[in-house]
């Protein structure tokens, strides 16, 4: 195992790229935007809503890195993923035509899957939805027509049974919002208490394939062993009741590589019980911000990033060589940024950057510009057979998450995902 630099505090390497081209394997990224262009980006005031789950916000640092992307020197943009896969390719399975109005079929739901889900059978596109509230009929229209690889729901879980009826192969992820982790407790007992507290909800929602634990933990080096022990025990406790776990749930940009080494025992336990790994990947002002940059102690790689496609470092350099390449779901993905030292629990979602994208030529409208970026990300994710899919944050967003809400984009996302079959 190669040597690594001493752990660096949370960081975000800046790569500013002015545009994206969807589904073009040989297209180059446009030049970086000017400082004047970055200066027009909006600010926003968070409106905390205690009913909604938290998501990741980069911490501001004294030197401005991580809290203000204007202050760092841009790195050289790299090409989009080429037609030659970085990892072994999968053999495509011809898709089954999806009827315009699918006929639901009776399905006996169980919260476990007999074998690990074969990603080859999930369809060419791996774009799915993160859903906070099932408050728009277009959410289920997306499911019926796109037959997505994955859908994730938080708290509002009952509609996942309808998802399974309309698209039986869709992998479903569930999470019940709670605070924590509480590192002052015994990790094994904390895991048992966690499962026992939520057990009734698990039993009431058998259409959930995998259950996530805490949202976006960042244990750092000194607490990663604690968190690994917690997740190991949570996997075993869930298995005793016939359920399966999605472990990790880490925020974008964490953990660092050497921290993740301390988490390998949890990966092994999840693999033994047919669990999966979940991570979040965000960037801003565009999704390829930081693509081509390195992790601390690593050489830059043109097909990986500091934020988006960060998971490739963990799989290519560690999990695959160790035989621990369990299926992965990027259970939150999209645009999440913060400008300056603006206080508040929420960052800036795609709606805040829309006008900037248009001015930079990323798309003729904010909606098309975001779709172009999601298609770019989808094209890369589809090359990695161990990735089940990714869920765009978020459908059903409200309150402080309204800036991330993609309800208005659902018809376009449905048309895009359906066209990839």
Could you characterize what this model shows?
With 421 residues, the chain is an alpha/beta fold. It has one domain (68-83, 114-419): TIM Barrel (Alpha-Beta Barrel). Helices cover 29% and strands 12% of the residues. The protein has helices at 35-39, 137-146, 160-166, 187-204, 220-240, 257-261, 264-272, 311-319, 350-359, 366-381, 410-419; strands at residues 127-131, 150-154, 171-175, 210-212, 245-250, 276-283, 328-335, 387-395. Strands 1-2-3-4-5-6-7-8 form an 8-stranded parallel barrel, surrounded by 4 helices. Helix 3 (160-166) links the parallel strand 2 (150-154) and strand 3 (171-175). Helix 4 crosses helix 5 (220-240).
Secondary structure blueprint with pairings:
Layout: H1 35-39, E1 127-131, H2 137-146, E2 150-154, H3 160-166, E3 171-175, H4 187-204, E4 210-212, H5 220-240, E5 245-250, H6 257-261, H7 264-272, E6 276-283, H8 311-319, E7 328-335, H9 350-359, H10 366-381, E8 387-395, H11 410-419
Parallel strand pairs: 1-2, 1-8, 2-3, 3-4, 4-5, 5-6, 6-7, 7-8
Q: What is the rounded Rg?
A: 20 Å
Shape: globular
C-alpha end-to-end distance: 40 Å
- Structural class comes to alpha/beta
How many discrete structural domains? Answer: 1
- Taking strands numbered 1, 2, ... along the chain, how are they ordered across the largest sheet? 1-2-3-4-5-6-7-8
Task: State the CATH topology.
Answer: TIM Barrel
Total E-strand runs = 8
Helix content: 25-40%
Count of individual helical segments:
11
Ranges where pLDDT stays below 50 over 5 or more residues in a row are 1-114, 339-345
CATH class: Alpha Beta
Mean pLDDT equals 78
Q: What characterizes the major β-sheet? A: 8 strands, parallel, barrel
Q: Based on the coordinates given, report the CATH architecture.
A: Alpha-Beta Barrel
Order of helices and strands: HEHEHEHEHEHHEHEHHEH
Instruction: Report strand %.
Output: 5-15%
